[in-house]
Write a structure and sequence with these properties.
The protein is built from eleven helices and eleven strands. By secondary structure, it is of the alpha/beta class. Strand 7, helix 7 and strand 8 form a beta-alpha-beta unit. It is elongated. Strands 3-2-1-4-5-10-11 form a seven-stranded mixed sheet, sandwiched between helices. It has two domains: 180 residues, 3-Layer(aba) Sandwich (Rossmann fold), CATH 3.40.50; 119 residues, 3-Layer(aba) Sandwich (Rossmann fold). Bound molecules: adenosine-5'-triphosphate (ATP).
């Protein structure tokens, strides 16, 4: 067992709904195991600057239902360099922090792994990102909420698209992964879904749209992942506007953007975040380090951080086939 008396916890990278629920679970599990807990504000930026706050049970009261992160998040250029990480380690030692729980995405875990390697801090990762692009867990904290927000907005777009027989290109988030696009497209009944995991050719997109529009549908919705290689919804819109074959088609594009990051976490995200927060502290107390806690087939599972950021999580290709049948 590692001799841990004080645990440090931070949220880092892109914020995700459910990070607060995870933080609450980490703090309360640590306290109930007689550990002291320090909250590190603003991710690695705050870690380097010593922007720390003592956490007690009350400091995480009534946050299970809130979006964002009460510890704030940030991106830190300094932490990308060895000297920055050495300054962070110095601050952590000064604050008597013996171990860390990092809530964030793959960049956060790359940094955590380096801190572990260079300064021997025990560290456990909890997957907090809306993109769902982390190997080692079926879902990341925040993904379910973002997906539901995307679907709700696609439903709204459908109403207005129907009223005018319009073609809508709806761009959703996900960076270079297509999980939100694929699943919100299916859930929102999109006629076409474009994701980075498959090759998207403009000629194919045009042909498919023309065939959909000629079938006299009331409306057509194309869900486009922000990381799709044709330049997202705006890139496709421009190409269609430049093509005389599309001059009669009433076309609009909309980018859902940061609405997908905010809002109260869904029940699924709250429960996932709570389970993983508890599991992260238990894993530390069991002597594990440099691993991420995830949920795979309903069971918590530990995956080495290097595998989490070193491997690409695959989308479900059967779901892609489904869209061809359903659209
Ligand atoms: P999301 O996927 O939601 O954007 P993330 O954790 O991947 O979350 P990043 O901005 O990629 O977000 O990373 C967060 C921070 O982690 C960075 O600002 C940087 O300080 C640190 N970091 C990222 N990559 C590395 C690396 N290779 N070495 C050291 N630190 C890193």
């Amino acid at each position: 067992m590692q001799d841990i008396q004080r645990l440090g916890v931070y949220t880092s990278g892109g914020d995700a709904p459910g990070m607060n629920a995870c933080l609450r679970a980490v703090v309360r599990t640590a306290l109930s195991n007689d550990l002291d807990v320090t909250g590190i504000r603003r991710g690695y930026e705050g870690m380097i600057e010593g922007d720390y706050v003592e956490m007690d049970r009350r400091s995480v009261s009534h946050i299970v239902q809130t979006g964002g992160t009460v510890l704030k998040s940030a991106r830190s250029e300094d932490f990308m360099h060895k000297e920055g990480r050495a300054r962070a380690a110095q601050q952590l030692r000064k604050a008597k922090i013996d171990a860390l729980v990092a809530i964030g995405g793959d960049g956060t875990f790359r940094g955590a792994s380096k801190l572990h390697e260079e300064h021997e801090f025990p560290v456990i990762g909890a997957p907090g990102t809306i993109d769902n692009d982390l190997y080692g867990t079926d879902a990341t904290i925040g993904y379910d909420t973002a997906l539901n927000t995307a679907i709700e907005n696609i439903d709204r777009v459908r109403d207005t698209a129907d009223a005018h027989n319009r073609l809508f290109l709806v761009e959703v988030m996900g960076r270079d992964a297509g999980f939100i696009a694929l699943n919100s497209g299916i859930g929102g009944g999109a006629e076409l879904i474009l994701i980075p995991e498959t090759i998207t050719e403009m000629d194919m997109v045009k042909e498919r749209i023309l065939s959909l529009m000629s079938a006299q549908r009331r409306s057509t919705i194309v869900v486009v992942a922000e990381g799709d290689e044709l330049g997202g919804a705006r890139g496709i819109e421009q190409a269609l506007r430049d093509d005389p074959e599309f001059s009669d088609i009433d076309l609009r594009s909309t980018i859902l953007g940061h609405t997908q990051r905010g809002g109260s976490p869904t029940a699924g995200d709250r429960v996932l975040a709570s389970r993983l927060g508890v599991a992260a502290v238990e894993a530390l107390l069991d002597g594990h380090s440099d691993v991420m806690v995830g949920l795979v087939n309903g069971e918590t599972k530990l995956t080495p951080l290097r595998n989490v950021y070193g491997r690409r999580k695959s989308i479900d290709y059967d779901l892609l086939k489904l869209t061809q049948i359903l659209s």
